[in-house]
Amino acid sequence: MRFKTELKNIRTFSKLTAALNSLEKIAWVRLDDDTARFTVIPDTGSQVWASLSMDFMFENYHIQSAEANNTINLELPLQPLQRALKSALNSTSASLRLTKKEGVPVLSMTITTTTDASAPSAAAAHRAASLDDDPFDDDLPPEHLETSLRREREKIITQDIPVRVLHPETVETIMQPKVREPDVHIQLPPLLQLKAISDRFTKLALASGPAASRAGGPKLELSANMHGALRLRIASEAVDISSTWTGLENPQLDPAQIQGPIEEHPSARFREAGPDKWATVRVDGKDWSRVLSVGRLEGRVIACFADDHALILYVYVPQYDDSGADDSVVTFVDTSRIEPAFGP
Fold first, then answer.
1. Region Disordered: what ranges (predicted)?
2. For 52, 152, 265, 321, which has the most beta carbons within 10 A of its beta carbon?
């Protein structure tokens, strides 16, 4: 079993890891000839299924295993990976290799940085400043010698991330949950704005009394229609407030991606029913806040509502290094919030 690669899109890779780490500390990573999949399944809350082409983050990669398509399954701690990627942000190059150290499998990240050896130290700068203030100095101003010579020093850092290699039988039962066709699909407003309002609503609910804490945390009501509107609401005995966005986009469906005629799709019925027909789900306020941290990926986010059943977010991550390449997709699935919605 072998895996070795150079890293690219390190900043985006780091942001993705940070978003996953906010939900769970361990990820299942599945690598093969074409695709890198990152899956996070916490005990409670939203699941994440990220499917990225191998050349989104890796280049000049070599992967080999005895499984079909050279598949390698790893259990990967996200916090050490996030620290390593943070160290690599300003590197001149970084590579990743699956190896063993003292009998323990690790992903070894080698980071190469360059420092300017000609830059003066703090002490040298202080001495130079003292010389400039010398009253016995000549009246002639100092002249700087401009040269094209630049002395640089290369620094190599190695960070080892412990992993566990998983047998195919261990992961064959891990499958993305199947959810019925959505009733509403809508592009979300800027996530930073949505997160700020969601967090404020959650804090208001917590401050209103202990009932929310006893119920497992404040529940936010999210509603959307097929006429470009999204509504966020928090309701309890002490507080009932909402915020609404309008003019949002309801993306067109791809007929090749759905079963049956497009006019019979649930979203078509919701569109025909008019702007008063809402699909609604309830989400845990704290979990929702962590999910919205995916906004750091700076991609557009499509929310799919299965009324009173499930919420799925599709985050389309652009490839900044290749503007002509297709976006990669990170999928957030929350099927655990199926409590009845608030009344009108």
1. 118-138
2. 52
